[in-house]
Amino acid sequence: MEVATDDPSASLVSDIDDVEKHFPGTLTAIRDWFRDYKIPDGKPANKFGLGNKAASKDYALKVITETNESWAKLVTRSISPGELSLLYVFVASLVRRKKQKFCLFYR
């Protein structure tokens, strides 16, 4: 979740527990929407990990950091792509802060 820094409520929220404290019911409504939004198309409800609880800021930042590090190793070829095929397309690289060409496709 995020709150725009120019929102008057931004100073109230620094982690996920603050959302429920200051905006009761918001997390439940968001979780329910993400669980059910595919149902009208005949698809099953989504399921969530973490015991259906929203993760803390620290947990989310850890996952983002680990994922980015793995991506950086892949696109710099520090690790084998395995079943992935690295085809070149134009995207901004977060590794070297310059434009590089990478796209991931499963074979």
From TrEMBL:
Reactions it catalyzes: diphosphate + H2O = 2 phosphate + H(+)
Record bears the keyword Protease: no
SUPFAM superfamilies: Inorganic pyrophosphatase
Full protein name: inorganic diphosphatase
GO terms classed as biological process: phosphate-containing compound metabolic process
Gene3D superfamilies, per the entry: Inorganic pyrophosphatase (3.90.80.10)
Molecular function terms, GO-annotated: inorganic diphosphate phosphatase activity; magnesium ion binding
GO cellular component: cytoplasm
Keywords of this entry: Hydrolase, Magnesium, Metal-binding
Cofactor: Mg(2+)
Keyword Disulfide bond set for record: no
TM annotation in the entry: none
Membership in a protein family: Belongs to the PPase family.
A Pfam family this chain is assigned to: Pyrophosphatase
InterPro entries attached to this UniProt entry: Pyrophosphatase (IPR008162), Pyrophosphatase_sf (IPR036649)
